[in-house]
# Entry
Amino acid sequence: MDTELLRAFVTVAECEGFSAAGKVLHRTQSAVSLQIKRLEDQMGKALFERTSRSVMLTGPGERLLPYARHMLKLEDEARAAVGELTRGELIRFGTSEEQAATYLPQLLTRYAERYPSARLEVHCNISASLVETFQEGLLDVVLSIRHAPTQSGHLLGWEPMVWVVAEERRPEEWETLPLALNPEGCIFRAHALSALGREARRWQLRYVSPSPTGINLPVQAGLAITVKTPRSVPEGCRIVGEEEGLPPLGQVEIELHRRPGHTSEALEAFCQELEAIVTENDTVASPRPNEALYRGE
# Structure
């Protein structure tokens, strides 16, 4: 069997669509469709059921999928053995700066013990931008805060959002609440403004930055208040208590995205270590059993 056709098949199955698979494979939707047609001709069976709203595996497609994944894994291992063994596999990982600061110290140590020759390329950005880059096929793994429905996101758990202020400040000191938030498109910003709007609380967006440093500095100086998760409260700051009158913010969902059609041992181990470290964090609530297979359709 042609492994390029198998890779297209696995990618379409995991992306649940030809357009999304084309972005990952850097091919047009029609080119991916043609590859699947060639594979179906070789197998003598239809592998997908196509409707105007969905792409689903047929019975023969479901039976082929585990074999296709295994063959692609063997191909990747063979290529590594004869070509890039000395360099190690490159894993392109995307996450926010605050998630990187929380999880990378432990992740790097644990992963390096298992795969000392692996290479890691870390990209830090806001979650929405990282997921978009992942969907374009430019990242292999993304740890993100869910902003919108996706077909690739695997739910790891939930984190509460909290108001954060300098230790010596109290929210009631401000008649108009000064805010330090990320640019438009950030889910923390959206939740903060929505919550304040429901309470008819006066606010002013005083500081805007895509960088945690740009947000933390005015908050630490007592000039503004912001929204974070408990793991990201900067030094010299505290979580605002429920009794202090600010509206509740709810929680955010943590997702792991991994490149479809790629099943190398090194990438699998990286995702396992990352998931274990995230779910071990005290602020992360694990999904209930019936939610463990969550996907963002």
Observations:
- Confidence is low (pLDDT under 50) at residues 289-297.
- The longest helix spans residues 59-84.
- The domain at 3-84 is CATH 1.10.10.10 (Arc Repressor Mutant, subunit A).
